[in-house]
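User: Okay, second chain of the day. Same drill as before: sequence in, C-alpha cells out.
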Amino acid sequence: MDLLDFLTKEELIRFFHCKKTEMSCMEEPNRFLHQLRDHNLVPEKLYKKVVKMRCKEKRKDGVYQILDWLEKERSDSVHLFWMCVFKDHILQEYPVLRLLRNSLMDGSFRVYENLSAPVDQTKRENKPVQIKETTAKEKKRERKRKKSAEETEEDEQPGPSCPSIPNQEKSAKKLMFCECVIYSAISVKYMSNHSFLQQPHQQNSAEFIQ
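Assistant: Same drill. C-alpha cells below.
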C-alpha cells in the first residue's frame, strides 16, 4: 500500500498549501511541469506560458501560479499530484521533493496541522471594513460620553445667585472689617464726648474749693 493512502485528503491539501513556495523555487522546473502536464494537472495555456520563460524570477512566479491554480481549481486531485511528483525519476532530479516525501514518511509534516485553514479572499476583503465600522462606532460613543461629561460639569458649576464658598469667605471678612471700623469710630466719638463733659465739671469743683 502506498504511503499516501494513510493520509487524509485534508492533510495532503494542508501540506500542499504550506509547501507551494518551496516547490516553486526549483532551479529547472521544466521536467516537473512536464510531469504535471502528463497527468492533466496544469492548464495547457499556462503550462506553455511558464515553460517559455527565461527569467528565473518570473519562472518561479509562474510555477507558483500553476501550483496556486491547482490548489484552488483541482484540490480533489491533490492525491494524484503527490503520487506523480514522488516518482523515482522526479525525485532524483529535485531534492526539494525528496525532502517533502521524507517529511510525509517520518510524520514531521503534522506540525502543519496546527496551522489555520486558508482564509477566504472575500472574508479577507470584508474584515478591514468591519474594523473600520467598529472604530467609527467607538468614536461616536466616545464623543457622546465626552458631551455628557461636559454637560454634567456645567450643571455642577454654581450660578450667579449661588456664590461659591471662597466668595462667601471674602464677604465675611469684609463685613468683619467694616464692623471693626464702625466700632472703633463709635468708641473714639464716645471718648471724645466723655472727656468734653468732664472738663466743665472739674473747673466748677475747683472754683468751689477756692
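The chain has nine helices and no strands.

User: Thanks, on to the next one.
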